[in-house]
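sorry for the late reply, my laptop died twice this morning and i had to redo everyting from scratch. anyway the thing you sent over, i finally got around to it. pasting the sequence first so we're on the same page, its 439 residues, then the predicted structure underneath. double check i copied it right bc i was rushing
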Amino acid sequence: MRLQSKLTLFSAASKIIILLLLVMVLPPVINRIALLSTDQRLLQKKEQVFDIIEEQGIESFLTGDEDSAYGSYNLLKEEFISMEPIDPSQINNRIENTLRKVEGEIVEYRVLSLAFELHGETYLLEIGRSLDTIRETSNTLQRYALYFLVGVVLFTVFIDLVFLKVLLRPMRLILRKLKRIGHPDKFKPTPLPTTTSDFIYLNDTINNMMGQVQDAFRKEKEFIGNVSHELLTPVSILQNRLENLMADPIVPDEVLPKLAESQKTLYRLKSIIQALLLISRIENEQYLKNESVNLRALVQDVVEEIGDRAEMKEVTISTSLHDNLVLPNANHSLLFTMLFNVVNNAIKYNKEGGSISINGSGLGNKYKLTVTDTGTGIAEDQLPKIFRRFKRAHATDGESYGLGLAIVNTVAKFHKIKLDVSSKLNEGTTFAFVFPKSS
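ok and here's the structure:
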């Protein structure tokens, strides 16, 4: 999972957890706030009643009789005010929830009870508000608070997503730059357009690391190229000397087999040096890609060149190429070597009487060429290693040096050809080359 997705999910999950906690805490908090608000409202009503009594006298509420009392309920019985004379010993000022019977209906109220003295008389003032009204207000507050919280969470998640996208843009630029590196020599260190010190440090570190890789890679290629080139001369001299010795009539017959064996060893050494030199030159891009190569003609040339070897092992080669491809910018010699090595391996490790099929067809904007044999196959755990230098996918045969497929892979990369291999033991192997139709 991408870093941006992880950070966004973490941000969203943390906000959802906070939202759930708030949802759990919200009802009792809002209920408490509603009650405090109601109590404040009751106290304000009390002040209003006292203002009326002060202006109009107690008679505006009481008729003046000794046992007279006042009670007033609004239309929906949501609020009431009552006043009556009481014994001074009954004074008990409080705000509490209590039940009242109103017109035969039991209603639960939040009631302010307050005793006060006026003209030597003690009166009890009660102001109440229906708890159902309070609960309705509380539920409305809870609902809108929940909507607000959900909106805030969604908005902040969106803002976080946009911010993370902007914040992580330098990371995407770094990854894009690394993906475009097809070859260490192609890498060019570039500054990163950001003010985030962490990303600047990461970019500088990658630039320094790639610089070291380029130096190491360049030294390795130079070493291989120089050593291979320097070794060819003495090996060729030794070969000529052995050939002269073998042609000299004074050399005893019993020495000739030893000289022939030495000649064979030198030939193998020269082949290895030439293969390494070829790989080094391709990697150093010392070959030009200035030829137009007809793929069908190239396959036919390889089949004709290698036909005698196939006949010796009684292996049949069949070709079927549709939608012929012409590569405009290529190197015919290298492509020939690439295909020749694959077909040569298909013959070498095939069964007697086996077959090789070379098929080609268009694949969208690409062209796919496959070479399939009925040979011994390659173990699945060995497939990732077959393109390594000096790695032999099959048992030692005395002829393979483990460089043929390394050359194939190097030529494919040089021409930007995608190379895939699939194989099953004792069933055969398929090499698939996917060519770009334009270059």
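The chain has a mean pLDDT of 83.
thats about all i looked at so far, will dig more tmrw
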